[in-house]
Amino acid sequence: MTEATSRFPAEWEPQSAILIAWPNADTDWAERLGEVEDTYIALVAAITRFQPVVVCVADEDVESYAQARLSSNRIDMARVRFVEVPYDDTWLRDSGPLSLREGDGFRLLDFRFTGWGGKFDASLDDQLVERLHGMGIFSKSSRQSIDFALEGGAIDTDGAGTLLTTWQCLHERHPDASRAQLTDRLATWLRQDRVLWLDHGYLEGDDTDAHVDTLARFAAPDAIVFQACDDPADSHHAELQAMAGEIAALRTADGRPYRLFPLPWPAPILDGGRRLAASYANFLIVNGAVLMPAYGDPADAKAADVMQQAFPDREIVQVPCRPLIWQNGSLHCITMQLPEGLVR
Prior knowledge:
Number of domains: 1
Shape: globular
Protein name: Agmatine deiminase family protein
Keywords: Hydrolase
Number of strands: 19
Radius of gyration: 19 Å
Organism: Luteimonas marina
Strand order of the largest sheet: 1-5-6-7
Pfam families: PAD_porph (PF04371)
Helix content: 25-40%
InterPro entries: Peptidyl-Arg-deiminase_porph
Order of helices and strands: EEHEHEHEEHHEEEHHEEEHEEEEEHEE
């Protein structure tokens, strides 16, 4: 059962800030840094319309450069806070803190970050939560170190005790653990009453082993937005159709079918013959708005319409994210929301 004094809030609940890390020449973005910086500028511009953003920077030079780029784009710098901290890369969804509300404060869950199962070096990223907490930027918070590999992009919660995740990812990280064991661990650490597993769904060009935040997300306790594929000739069709069937069979905690919002399928985006993972499910919820990845595809507008139906009380803001998928992630992957009251 969920502890009354400790709860994992949904992304749509009030936030104090969004946490990101600025790309630089020492990250994997180096080869196409200019394009990626433009996406980050557009992202910060969108976030600061609604709330503050905390920007991790590797050193003083990166901070000065980022500040100049952002200032020259007429961004409200009063809502931008820089924090100097070392990091390997900028995927803050997976290396950042998972924040539980605990009484009148917070518990920051610091899971192991292994570079998605050892695919990339992640020694600095694995220390990120500890370093940020030690800097004192968080208010009334404790940090719980958990020796278990889990990325924030692998899970999604409705804030009311239900967690959504994928078997492929968790099984890949923990091949010796049964589903029952993983369910119990996730429910205990994340204060969940139940865990819903998806057995289908993947995207070419995704190296996370099927993170749920590229596939299906809660839009409300009774609503799920998911990436669909309506092209029978596409290599994803059978798997995403099977996932859609799984989602349709899910039930809310009180036994009702979820309201479902299938997202359109963009045309394939290739990079040197490699298919890139362009998912509209990788959106970010902020105070009063949903920031949605856009890929320069006609389906962008259709996806925005679906998102507006799923989030009727929020503004839908498109952020150009085509440069991000070159490195196998998108908008949600580079951000982590910090609940209201967490940032000093």
